[in-house]
């Protein structure tokens, strides 16, 4: 799909990720691992998780079978984002880690939640837990590929710069069928979580508490067999300058590739994982976000080829970005205030790239993948 006169952003919207409409919970949930309680029954399950690269790029034999489905649900209130998940396996479910903040994915069957309320790709949070409710919480100041690193109680003590811990989070797991750590058969287990907004928003100065109509970037992952299996809710698909196409990656730390949770009233309709998002419900900043990230990946490849120095203009990046993604922002027929610009530091080791949409949304990305959006003349925000 390419831009058209009728809709210059048709290509951009065709790449829009999964979007889950979460209702306000009718009352605070008791977190006990029971995902059959009436509150959850009123919310539809998400689409099933798939191989992390997406069906088009998943190697043969890596996608989940019908007996290894993973699905989730979401609700929210003024204090918590509520998550439940049902995790089915026809192979052994392993759970060996028992100490809080151990690296669950290294051994165990692992369910993970990733949250970035501001959509900035910085100060995002991750929760991992196994089938016996051992948890690991961490914050990434920025993605690992941008020299980011873990902040957690696993690697640091209170008062140290790399310390991060949660204080109000509630978690529970429940074995629904089969038995854990049984090499002769599989098992089905459930997860129920209450993730406090105060914990999720910590250190994220641009993030906002949920309100009706607001959105956060979010994703979910299931890891098995010491990382050999990676199944996710939203596929991790990004622009690949070398392949010259959007490509699936085995990398969860691509926050710009995550999906959305939309916060809705308790009586909203439709709810759940809506495959065809009403244009009014989509993130209006999506085309601008996609455009700046296209240049981010092009610049990263350019620096790899040019002694870690970045390009000073689009001409130098020719062949590394997708011109169809940038085209609508370059068209002279668009409003005068729309367009693009690139600011490069004198040492060529840092840059900022700006895109302004005809709807008055400006997106900015830096060489460290810090992505912000704002209304022209307004303040940086999640544009919810």
Percentage beta strand: 25-35%
Largest sheet: 10 strands, mixed
Instruction: Give helix and strand order, one letter per element, not per position.
Output: HEHEEEEEEEEEHEEEEEEHHEEEEE
**Total number of distinct structural domains:** 2
Helix count, DSSP H or I runs of 4 or more residues: 5
Mean pLDDT: 94
Task: Give the quaternary arrangement of the chains.
Answer: single chain
- Shape, per Cα inertia axes: globular
Helix content: 10-25%
Instruction: Please name the CATH topology of the largest domain.
Output: Immunoglobulin-like
Radius of gyration: 21 Å
Structural class: mainly beta
Determine and state the CATH class of the largest domain: Mainly Beta
Tell me what the structure shows.
- By secondary structure, the chain is mostly beta strands.
- The protein has two domains: 15-281, Immunoglobulin-like (Sandwich); 286-381, Fructose-1,6-Bisphosphatase, Chain A, domain 1, CATH 3.30.540.
- 11% of the residues lie in helices and 31% in strands.
- It is built from five helices and 21 strands.
- It has helices spanning 10-14, 38-41, 197-200, 286-305, 323-330; strands at residues 19-23, 50-51, 70-76, 80-88, 110-116, 124-129, 135-140, 150-151, 170-178, 187-196, 215-224, 229-232, 237-240, 245-248, 259-264, 272-273, 339-344, 351-356, 361-366, 371-375, 380-381.
- Strands 1, 2, 5, 6, 7, 8, 11, 12, 15 and 16 form a ten-stranded mixed β-sheet that branches. A five-stranded antiparallel β-sheet has the order 17-18-19-20-21, with helices on one face. It has a four-stranded antiparallel β-sheet with strand order 3-4-10-9.
- The protein starts with 9 loop residues before the first helix and ends with a strand.
- Residues 379-384 have low confidence and may be disordered.
């Amino acid at each position: 799909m390419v831009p058209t006169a009728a809709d210059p952003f048709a290509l951009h919207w065709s790449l829009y990720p999964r979007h889950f409409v979460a209702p306000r919970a009718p009352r605070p949930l008791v977190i006990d691992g029971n995902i059959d309680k009436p509150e959850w029954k009123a919310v539809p399950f998400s689409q099933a998780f798939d191989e992390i690269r997406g069906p088009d790029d998943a190697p043969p034999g890596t996608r989940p079978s019908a007996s290894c489905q993973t699905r989730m649900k979401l609700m929210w209130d003024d204090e918590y984002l509520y998550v439940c998940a049902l995790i089915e396996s026809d192979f052994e479910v392993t759970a060996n880690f028992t100490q809080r903040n151990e690296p669950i994915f290294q051994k165990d069957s692992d369910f993970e939640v990733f949250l970035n309320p501001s959509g900035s790709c910085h100060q995002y949070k991750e929760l991992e837990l196994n089938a016996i409710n051992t948890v690991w919480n961490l914050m990434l100041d920025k993605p690992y590929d941008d020299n980011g690193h873990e902040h957690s109680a696993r690697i640091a003590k209170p008062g140290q710069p790399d310390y991060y811990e949660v204080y109000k989070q509630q978690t529970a797991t429940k074995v629904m069928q089969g038995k854990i750590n049984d090499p002769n058969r599989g098992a089905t287990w459930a997860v129920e979580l209450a993730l406090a907004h105060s914990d999720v928003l910590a250190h994220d100065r641009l993030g906002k508490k949920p309100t009706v109509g607001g959105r956060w970037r979010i994703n979910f992952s299931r890891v098995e067999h010491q990382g050999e299996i990676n199944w996710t809710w939203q596929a991790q698909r990004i622009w690949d300058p070398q392949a010259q196409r959007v490509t699936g990656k085995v990398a969860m730390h691509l926050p710009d590739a995550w999906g959305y949770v939309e916060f809705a009233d308790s009586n909203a309709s439709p709810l759940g994982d809506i495959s065809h998002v009403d244009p009014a419900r989509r993130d209006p900043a999506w085309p601008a976000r996609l455009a700046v990230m296209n240049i981010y990946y092009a610049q990263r490849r350019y620096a790899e080829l040019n002694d870690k120095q970045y390009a000073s203009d689009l001409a130098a990046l020719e062949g590394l970005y997708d011109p169809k993604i940038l085209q609508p922002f370059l068209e002279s027929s668009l409003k005068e205030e729309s367009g693009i610009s690139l600011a490069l530091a004198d040492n060529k080791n840092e840059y900022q790239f700006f895109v302004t949409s005809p709807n008055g949304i400006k997106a900015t990305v830096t060489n460290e993948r810090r992505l912000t959006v704002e209304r022209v003349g307004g303040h940086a925000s999640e544009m919810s």
